[in-house]
Specification:
It is built from 18 helices and 4 strands. It has 324 residues and is mostly helical.
Length: 324
């Protein structure tokens, strides 16, 4: 005997008990049915999934090179298995801890100095009321992002040249800053802020654009100053996005930009510029030590994963944002 389904009735924002029971008895659609109903979306998703699998997951098979004495003529499986030999060799090398220290310090100071700058810029730009001037400021700040790293490094060398460089002309000196280890970290971080701070504030400006204007109007009526509106409206709105960006940045903490370090490195500033990314390139490409360079790169990646998980755990406890 069939029963006629009872209509689901709502009282205000609540579903009645009879309606809840009807929804509970309602059979769910199978996975295959849901895929068929939305096959266009899954078809669009198919190509990115295939490309990700081919170019990201299949190459992971080559990680075993780090545990073998790889010979190209013998292939992966034909090369001798040496276990942790290459890792032990790296940790026993005389420059190992210097490279780890330089990588961590450059990445950490870059994060500490460059992370809040886009947030501050977005808060300032959001307060501009002249739209034409606002667009000009945004364009000027975005422009350095589109300059290649090689051109940026060429500009840095010109500005810091001991003979006719802009900085030396201002200071009235003839100092070659790129040969000083103590100046390398500052040069790297400052140039990075100049190049990427404007681009990094785009996502924060987009977040602020979605804030309800009624909140600002209510705050003005209540007598809130500009600083109070920023503190109580803008910053809480930006906090989830800022935490998410912090988690993602922490996941790449050990990934110091190879190109800029390589182009600015000299024999005299190696004490501060000798980082893991450059060392991997030198050992793997220049010296053809494939197993050794793979082991060093794998160690670097493992540290990044651990840092990502730690920062994600801390952020998830401090707020409602969680990345993984």
């Amino acid at each position: 005997m069939k029963t006629t389904p009872q209509p689901v009735t709502c009282t205000g924002d609540r579903i009645s008990s009879a309606g809840s029971a009807a929804l509970a008895r309602r059979p769910g659609r199978s996975l295959g049915r849901r895929v068929l109903d939305n096959w266009q979306l899954y078809a669009l998703l198919l190509l990115p999934v295939i490309l990700t699998f081919v170019y990201k997951y299949i190459p992971m098979y080559g990680i075993q090179i780090a545990f073998r004495d790889f010979k190209a003529s013998r292939g992966y499986l034909g090369s001798e298995w040496v276990g942790w030999y290459w890792f032990q060799r790296f940790f026993s090398s005389p420059t190992c801890w210097r490279m780890i220290k330089n990588t961590v310090l450059i990445s950490l100071f870059s994060l500490l100095w460059s992370f809040p700058i886009p947030i501050i810029l977005s808060l300032i730009i959001n307060q501009l009321r002249f739209h034409k001037f606002k667009r000009v400021v945004q364009t000027v700040l975005y422009a350095p992002h589109f300059i290649s790293v090689m051109v940026i490094c060429g500009m840095i060398r010109i500005f810091l040249s001991p003979s006719g460089g802009l900085l030396n002309l201002i200071l009235g000196t003839q100092i070659d800053f790129l040969t000083q280890s103590s100046a390398f970290r500052t040069i790297y971080i400052a140039s990075g802020i100049w190049q990427d701070a404007g681009w990094g504030c785009i996502i924060y400006l987009a977040t602020l654009a979605n804030v309800d204007p009624g909140l600002y109007e209510a705050a003005k009526i209540d007598g809130a100053s500009v600083f109070q509106r920023i503190l109580n409206i803008d910053i809480p709105e930006l906090l989830p996005m800022a935490i998410l960006n912090l988690i993602m940045a922490a996941g790449g903490l050990m990934n110091v930009g190879f190109e800029k370090v390589w182009l600015l490195q000299t024999d005299l500033n190696k004490a501060a510029s000798d980082v893991i990314a450059v060392y991997v390139y030198q050992q793997g490409i220049e010296s053809a030590k494939y197993s050794y360079s793979t082991a060093v790169g794998l160690f670097n990646t493992a540290v990044n994963i651990v840092l990502l998980l730690i920062v994600n755990k801390i952020a998830s406890k401090a707020s409602d944002v969680e990345f993984v």
